[in-house]
């Protein structure tokens, strides 16, 4: 069972420290198999489910929530607006309808880069819609995803700001840490929690090159201090994201992997030295699997 610590957001909402995502592992679109997979994720212990309008599978997520046997109030359900950002109230209504829910726990703007387009609201207008949704009680908490500092500033500098974003869901792993430092400091200063997606990217999406030695050292360190016979590489990366204070969002289509992910929370901790060595071993430039606009420091949305 998982011991990823729950994280309390600035509005008091409590989020399970690890979430199961429906956006990767070929999950796009509704299928009966996906309903079963999400039920399996809940059966093995996941209580936090990360969906999105863009994943085209909110209906399957809703069916799994209804059929999983765990009461709604024990689940933490996130969804995100996008591509429907032109009309956030409508996008939200459609999401609730598909999910078959009267509220979600966390509602996010999936990306900021649509906002300068004709017919779209500004970031500030979009945020007013998000605030109204929170005030209606149909989203317990509201936040953003893939927002740079300059995008967040547009919200935090609003003269009529009522609710600030509680979360920025971003790609977060050692191959991002150096490039992301300014953003992380900004988020910390404003008590906006990081939800870390792609946490296993150094293992699953890019060649390890110079990173492997530090990684194996950290893995052996965790194993030698704990009771676990074996520490899986992915588990080290999930621990790392959690120890850096993030809500971890991962996924898998395999039950044994889901269990392994949750069990990472019960392993012994990475030492400060191991964590620093992992960051130092990674290249300074970002190796990003998603959302390349995050590295563009010129374009205004
Ligand atoms: N907001 C966004 O823009 C955004 C972007 C990407 C992902 N997400 C969310 O985050 C969730 C998780 O993202 P992710 O998939 O990048 O997380 P992740 O880095 O944990 O990768 C999980 C994938 O890697 C595979 N995997 C995990 N450990 C492995 C191992 N040891 N060996 C081989 N394969 C392994 C899994 O089976 C799965 O396919 C998504 O499903 C989605 O909900 C959000
Ligand atoms: O959440 C970001 C990753 C992702 C998975 N499926 C998508 C479809 C549209 C936009 C982004 C995504």
TrEMBL record:
The protein's GO terms of the molecular function aspect are: oxidoreductase activity, acting on NAD(P)H as acceptor; oxidoreductase activity, acting on the CH-OH group of donors, NAD or NADP as acceptor
Q: Annotated region Disordered: where?
A: 280-301
Instruction: Name the chain's protein.
Output: NADP-dependent oxidoreductase domain-containing protein
Which residue numbers delimit the NADP-dependent oxidoreductase domain?
A: 21-281
Q: Which organism is it from?
A: Rhodotorula taiwanensis
Q: Which CDD domains match?
A: AKR_AKR3C2-3 (cd19120)
- Gene3D superfamilies according to UniProt: NADP-dependent oxidoreductase domain (3.20.20.100)
Q: Which residues bind substrate?
A: 110
Give the residue spans that cross the bilayer.
Answer: none
**What are the alphabetically sorted keywords of the record?**
Oxidoreductase
Sites annotated Lowers pKa of active site Tyr: 80
Q: Which residues form the active site?
A: 55 (proton donor)
InterPro entries referenced in this protein's UniProt entry, alphabetically:
AKR, AKR3C2/3, Aldo/ket_reductase_CS, NAD(P)_OxRdtase_dom_sf, NADP_OxRdtase_dom
């Amino acid at each position: 069972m998982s011991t990823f610590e729950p994280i309390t957001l600035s509005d008091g909402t409590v989020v399970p420290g690890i979430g199961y995502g429906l956006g990767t592992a070929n999950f796009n679109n509704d299928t009966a198999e996906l309903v079963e997979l999400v039920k399996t994720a809940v059966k093995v212990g996941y209580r936090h489910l990360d969906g999105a309008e863009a994943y085209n599978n909110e209906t399957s997520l809703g069916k799994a929530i209804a059929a999983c046997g765990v009461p709604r109030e024990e689940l933490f359900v996130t969804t995100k607006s996008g591509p429907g950002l032109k009309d956030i109230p409508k996008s939200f209504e459609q999401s609730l309808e598909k999910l078959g829910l009267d509220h979600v726990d966390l509602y996010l703007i999936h990306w900021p880069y649509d906002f300068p387009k004709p017919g779209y609201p500004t970031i500030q207008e979009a945020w007013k819609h998000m605030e109204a949704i929170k005030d209606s009680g149909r989203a317990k908490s509201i936040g953003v995803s893939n927002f740079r500092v300059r995008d967040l500033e547009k919200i935090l500098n609003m003269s009529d700001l009522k609710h600030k974003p509680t979360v920025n869901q971003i790609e977060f792993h050692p191959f991002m840490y150096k490039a992301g430092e300014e953003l992380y400091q900004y988020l910390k200063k404003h008590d906006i929690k990081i939800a870390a997606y792609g946490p296993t990217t150094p293992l699953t999406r890019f060649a390890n090159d110079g990173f492997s030695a530090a990684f194996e050292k950290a893995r052996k360190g965790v194993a030698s201090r704990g009771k676990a016979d074996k520490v899986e590489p992915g588990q080290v990366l999930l621990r790392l994201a959690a120890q850096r204070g993030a809500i971890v969002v991962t996924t898998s289509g395999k039950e044994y992997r889901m269990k392994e992910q949750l069990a990472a929370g019960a392993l012994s901790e990475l030492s400060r030295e191991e964590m620093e060595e992992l960051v130092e071993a990674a290249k300074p430039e970002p190796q990003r699997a998603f959302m390349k606009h995050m590295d563009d420091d010129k374009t205004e949305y």
